[in-house]
Amino acid sequence: MTTTATPTAVPADARITGPRVVRAEWIKFRSLRSSLIMLAATVVVFAALGLGFSAFLADATIEPGTPAPPGGPSSLDPLGASLGGVNLAQLLIATLGVLLTAGEYTTGMIRTSLAAVPRRWPVLTAKVAVLADVSLAVLVPTVLLTFLGGQAVLGEKAIALGDDGVLRAVLGTAAYLAGTGVLGAALGSLLRTTAGALTSVVALLLVVPGVVSLLPESWSEAIFPYLPSNAGQAFMSLGGDPDLLSPGSGAAVFAGWLLAFVGAALIRLLRRDA
Question: Using an 8 Å Cβ cutoff, are 81 and 46 in contact?
Fold first, then answer.
């Protein structure tokens, strides 16, 4: 006699679900020392530079229209000074995103992750969700407190959070930084090398805008506002700059860049072996 094996149903508590993948990625995120260090460095650098630029502006006598010093805030105004740390903080949090994804390809951990989640795409979307949520949870209060601290330092030169466009610019700065982290994560997953992804982030955010500004004026004006960093600048400022998009358009363009890179990373993850 022969016995026929009957298939055993997978226990309900052993099935792979979206929330469980997110929880697994959250455990990996908080277990990595590099993730916590880069997130803390982003907070410290943003706050320190914002307060430092605010102190500089408070003591300075500056004529209207004077260009900002190299490496300083985008403009010598109360909002630009207190949010001036975004220029360096964006590189730190983008590095966090790169390490979160490309690091798994370097160590080979990605094979374990994909073996546990055969459908693949939930792994990357969970990483992006965890990074975006943690970044916003940390950066919204950081940016808000830095702005308020910077305005306290500025004294008579200060502006209020309730002034037209200020709250939107403050929250937009936190959203831009979180989005930059997602951009780094997408490039890390797409290129699968830490060095290549970091180089691409720096080029996209810092080098390409400088190169575009050297193009003929008709070309530069057509391209410049739609670059990721310039689209972000549109909703991190009070508006009115003729070289930038409107805040709403800038947010839409920046979101489009993120969707494009995350989508490209998902396509490669689904079609190519790790």
Answer: no
**The tokens of 224 are what?**
């410049």
| Predicted TM-score (pTM) of this structure | 0.88
pLDDT for position 241: 78
Could you tell me the sign of the dihedral formed by the alpha carbons of 18, 101, 45, 91, in that order? negative
pLDDT digits over 159-209, tens only?
Answer: 898 888 899 999 999 999 999 999 999 999 999 999 999 999 999 999 999
Instruction: Give the residue from 77, 55, 56, 58 showing the smallest Cα distance to 66.
Output: 77
Contact between 200 and 187 under an 8 Å Cβ cutoff? The reply is: yes
pLDDT confidence of 96, banded at 50, 70, 90? very high
The amino acid sitting at 213 is: S
Give the integer Cα–Cα distance in Å for 132 and 139: 10
Q: 225 by DSSP, 3-state: which? A: helix
Task: Tell me the C-alpha to C-alpha distance, in Å, between residue 131 and each of 4, 34, 107, 152, 178.
Answer: 48, 13, 20, 31, 8
Helices (H), the chain: 18-31, 33-59, 78-82, 86-107, 109-116, 121-154, 166-191, 194-202, 208-213, 217-223, 228-236, 247-271
How crowded is the C-beta side of 267, counted as CA atoms within 13 Å? Answer: 6
